[in-house]
Write a structure and sequence with these properties.
heterodimer, A: alpha+beta, Alpha-Beta Plaits, 4-stranded mixed beta sheet, 4 strands, B: mainly alpha, Lysozyme, 3-stranded antiparallel beta sheet, two-stranded antiparallel ribbon, 5 strands, about 50% helix
Chain lengths: ~200, ~260
């Protein structure tokens, strides 16, 4: 029973595929079966499709032949040559590729100071690094509140980094250790916080 | 007879404490004055867990000294404090109801000072928002629970009213306005609160008795540094505060001259 069912389903699928490829024949159901005009219409459609397929096959064969003829016969270039050739070619360099990856990691929405840790890791903005200078917060509200007040009293920019749910770090950007220490000192003097290394 | 004189004096002192008229300052107005004028004043000491207080104050946009006052009144900054009402830590967060409400799922978390201070600040901010910036009502609700303090503040339980005034007294200490917080040997701001010594003189069952006892002793010996703290339900401890051994000995002499002899 299952084999019969399978046969029927398979047949139906095959017919469906054929109809899909060849198109539904324009059959006028108002005419009685065995009408010669309807049979002729199906035959014309099959002929047209066959002709199209032959044309495509011929074109493809010609294009492939051309490509095979153009293949270099010499040894493939060394890896360094490939790298140097890339500089002159239209392909983007590694730097440009990394820029594209930055673009794909979207910046935080306006008004939101929250960014994800992965976004920051993937987005080294001109060698900027991020320094977390206080214990993680349990709530995003507290972290954002802290950042809001810090921005007000120090004039610096901060980010809240969500490490995971219930763990939010407040960070600021810096380029080098001198800048990091300067910013820590600024925060300490503006808030009265006793920060290490400030 | 010589030994009996100080005892008699002490008896008269404690008896008199019951007769002292309570401070009639309106706490509502006092808190409003503080919010309007004194929130930027730096604390008189460097109190324990100082960074946690500063960060919590910034996080919830609350006055730093307010949080210090609540913590001093609640636990005197003791991270492991626990009350019979099942309140825990520096800010005495009630377990499990208030703690769970604040996102704290484990009791042990309340013993981390920064977590506890953050939770207390968050709850206080919530109360302050609920009562439209009225700090007196917010504090009453912090202590008694918001369901017992009506939004219009019409009928506040006497205990909640008292609590607000109690915290205001600790605020005065934090700001350096309290008689028990006179300038010490070091310049202001460099004092470490945790380095101060404390010696409990005695405990009362009613806060006004402790308050009156302190007032009387201060009247007799203004140089003394005294304070009193709520130490659980129905227990109010009078405490002598001193800077070092020399200060302690001097205070002990002053106490004895005032009719109170320290035990060994």
């Amino acid at each position: 029973m299952i084999r019969i069912l399978g046969f029927l389903v398979g047949s139906a699928a095959s017919i469906g595929m054929m109809l899909l490829i060849l198109g539904v024949p324009d059959i006028d159901l108002s005419r009685p079966l065995g009408d010669n005009a309807a049979t002729a219409s199906v035959a014309q459609t099959v002929e047209a499709v066959t002709a199209d397929l032959e044309a495509v096959a011929t074109e493809t064969f010609e294009a492939v032949s051309e490509l095979v003829d153009d293949l270099p016969t010499a040894e493939p270039p060394a890896a360094e040559q490939v790298a140097s050739n890339n500089e002159d070619s239209d392909f983007p360099s590694e730097e440009l590729i990394s820029d594209i990856s930055q673009i794909t990691s979207f910046p935080p929405e306006p008004g939101s100071t929250t960014a994800t840790a992965s976004a920051i890791d993937e987005a080294p903005e001109n060698d900027l690094r991020w320094h977390s200078f206080w214990n993680p917060f349990r709530s995003e509200i507290a972290a954002n509140g802290f950042v809001g007040q810090l921005e007000k009293v120090t004039g610096l920019d901060y980010r809240v980094v969500k490490i995971k749910t219930g763990v939010y770090e407040v960070t600021f950007a810096y380029e080098n250790d001198t800048e990091r220490r300067t910013k820590l000192s600024q925060i300490a003097s503006a808030t009265g916080l006793d920060l290490p290394e400030s | 007879m010589q030994k009996a004189a100080p005892l008699l004096s002490f008896f008269l002192l404690t008896a008199a404490s019951a007769a002292v008229v309570k401070d009639t300052t309106d706490p509502d107005m006092a808190w409003q004055h503080y919010l309007d004028n004194d929130t930027q004043i730096e604390p008189s000491y460097r109190f324990p867990h100082a960074n946690c207080f500063r960060v919590a104050a910034l996080s919830y946009d609350l006055p730093h000294t307010l949080l210090l006052a609540v913590a001093r009144g609640e636990s005197d900054f003791e991270a492991t404090a626990r009350s019979r009402a099942n309140a825990h830590g520096v800010m005495q967060i009630l377990w499990p109801t208030t703690a769970n409400h604040l996102g704290i799922k484990r009791l042990s978390e309340l013993y981390d000072p920064c977590t506890n201070i953050d939770a207390g600040a968050r709850y206080l901010k919530e109360m302050l928002t609920r009562y439209d910036g009225n700090l007196h009502l917010a504090l009453a609700a912090y202590n008694y629970g918001p369901e017992r303090i009506p939004a219009n503040g019409d009928v506040i339980p006497p205990g909640a009213e008292w609590y607000s005034a109690y915290i205001f007294r600790h605020l005065n200490y934090v700001l350096g306005n309290s008689p028990g917080n006179r300038p010490g040997k070091r310049p202001a701001g460099e004092h470490l609160y945790s380095q101060l010594g404390r010696s409990t003189l005695l405990s009362f069952g009613e806060p006004y008795r402790a308050e009156a006892f302190v007032a009387k002793l201060e009247q007799r010996a203004p140089e003394l540094r005294l304070d009193w703290f709520r130490k659980g339900v129905g227990k109010f401890a009078v405490v002598l505060i001193y800077e070092d051994r020399e200060d302690f000995d001097r205070s002990a002499d002053l106490l004895q001259q005032s009719g109170f002899r320290l035990g060994n």
